Amino acid sequence: MFREYPYEVQEKREQFMVNRITDLMAGHEKGLFVVGMDHLHSCMTKLRLAGFDVKGGNWLRIPDTAKHLECSNCHELVEVRVEYDAKVLGAQE
């Protein structure tokens, strides 16, 4: 059975959150907003559009997701890890 995604309901819920954050952050420079992964990307976008400097992340340790890829230069298998890639991209510990 096809279950239609409740887009309008989700949008109203997130806009309510952004409006409350805007009201409650008046007079503050920094805050912490804890949100589930279902809302993370779209709420970050909405908060940025509302003028906030937003950073997202999580406290969960990423499981060992090592993958072996063939190096195009030496043709040896090279281990690639998400944690390492995140550091290369500038993530802070």
Biggest sheet: strands, sense, closure? 2 strands, antiparallel
Name the average pLDDT: 77
Point out poorly predicted stretches.
none
Oligomer: single chain
Radius of gyration computed on alpha carbons: 19 Å
Bin the strand percentage.
5-15%
Number of domains: 2
The class by helix and strand makeup works out as: mainly alpha
CA-CA gap between termini: 44 Å
The global form is flat
User: Approximately how much helix is present in the residues?
Assistant: 40-55%
Order of helices and strands: HHEEH
Please, how many helices? 3
How many strands in all? 2
Write out the strand line-up for the largest beta sheet, numbering strands in chain order. Answer: 1-2
Question: How are the elements arranged and paired?
Answer:
Layout: H1 7-25, H2 37-49, E1 67-70, E2 77-80, H3 82-88
Antiparallel strand pairs: 1-2
Helix pairs in contact: 1-2
Offer a concise description of the structure.
With 93 residues, the protein is mainly α. Helix content is 42%, strand content 9%. Strand 1 and strand 2 form a beta hairpin.
Would you kindly provide a written description of the structure presented here, covering whatever features stand out?
The chain is mainly alpha-helical and 93 residues long. It has 2 domains: 7-49, no CATH class; 61-93, no CATH class. The chain is built from 3 helices and 2 strands; from the N terminus they run ααββα. The chain has helices at 7-25, 37-49, 82-88, and strands at 67-70, 77-80. Strand 1 and strand 2 form a beta hairpin. The longest helix is centred in the first third of the chain and has 19 residues, at 7-25. It starts with 6 loop residues before the first helix and ends in a 5-residue tail after the last helix. The model has no long low-confidence stretch (mean pLDDT 77).
